Amino acid sequence: MCSRPWPCPEAQTRLLDEYEAYPSLLKIYLSAQMYEALDDLTVDGQSPPVDLYERFLAWTRTRPAF
Question: What pTM, to 2 d.p., does this model score?
Fold first, then answer.
């Protein structure tokens, strides 16, 4: 994997390939992961990151460009 936050471009490509036949399931899976990350990132009362939707879901409409 790459050193960028998950899902990095390599993970995005792998997930798109893995869920190619079931894109709705990919979005459900990533939504669950996004909310888990939100809980983890705000556990100490910190403000939620503003880019979680873009990081976890927005890219599922197209294949990521490297």
Answer: 0.84
